[in-house]
Amino acid sequence: MKHVHSGKVRDLYETGEGLLLMVASDRLSAFDYVLEPDIPDKGAILTQMSLWWFDQLKDVVPNHVVAPGDEPRAVLCRPLKMVQVECVARGYLAGGGLNEYRAGGTVSGVRLPEGLEDGSRLPEPIFTPSTKAPMGQHDEPISYEQVEAEVGAELAAELRRITLAVYTRGAEIARERGIILADTKIELGWDSDGVLTLGDEVLTPDSSRFWPAGEWQPGRPQPSFDKQFVRDWLLSPESGWDKASGNPPPRLPDHVVERTRQRYLEAYERITGSSFSG
Questions:
Q1: Once rounded to an integer, what is the mean pLDDT over residues 39-44?
Q2: What is the rounded CA–CA span in Å between residue 36 and residue 40?
Q3: CB 89 within 8 A of CB 125
Q4: What is the pLDDT of residue 134?
Q5: Structure confidence by residue, pLDDT tens digits, 250-261
Q6: Residue 160: which region, alpha, beta or left (left: phi > 0; alpha: psi -120 to 50)?
Q7: Helices (H), 95-182
Q8: In this structure, how many other beta carbons lie within 10 angstroms of the beta carbon of residue 234?
Q9: Beta strand pairing status for 121-127 and 81-82?
Q10: CA distances to 36, 37, 75, 149 from 273, in Å
Q11: How far is CA 83 from CA 87, 127, 148, in A?
Q12: From residue 267, how far is each of 64, 158, 209, 277 by CA, in Å?
């Protein structure tokens, strides 16, 4: 097969039949850096979790999956012409959204009530798109009006509708399993018939924030089943890394690698109800 693209986490290969084989590596990215070392089993966990979610969402939006690959971290899929907008939905305030809110009371142009804290539940889920930056550059928040200007009013409305529908379904299912889906990012593109289709990954710890519902407490950072644990370590005195320095992050120590793997694994098993076999 012909190698056609490598992202921060995934590698794409073109088959002789015009399909794509998408392989999720064990690489982990944070703050737009690919970190070392890899997280064992991460690619297989993400792929199997995405396949499970694609099945749960098939009545919400079509997806690009043709069949699982021959190994757990691979999936055969239809090629899509991707929309150049990062589609993000938030039901809770955290991360970059929290920083925006603290700076001006809005997130991607959406005005929010006063007095919200780190981890606060929003009055209703909101669509908070961002730019789709090239590898190594930062995605930047954009308003819904900017999305309309970029892709047109009709497509912007459909992007918002699908993103919020995916978030709503995901949040409902996660809640039944004792997990809060705080926010998520999805990728959409057109298939060969011009149908807007869900691609890449969906509702994984790499693309979403998952919090244990029983430990949710607004006003502080939340315990999580996602890579927020790694972000927090990188910003801690233990890592010794200055994010503003322009230098790459340090190598992750063994205990951070193992705890990260365990968090991804727990997210998979709690949400899908299945044991991970690799």
A1: 96
A2: 11
A3: yes
A4: 64
A5: 999 999 999 999
A6: alpha
A7: 95-104, 144-151, 153-176
A8: 20
A9: unpaired
A10: 30, 29, 21, 42
A11: 9, 16, 13
A12: 23, 29, 10, 14
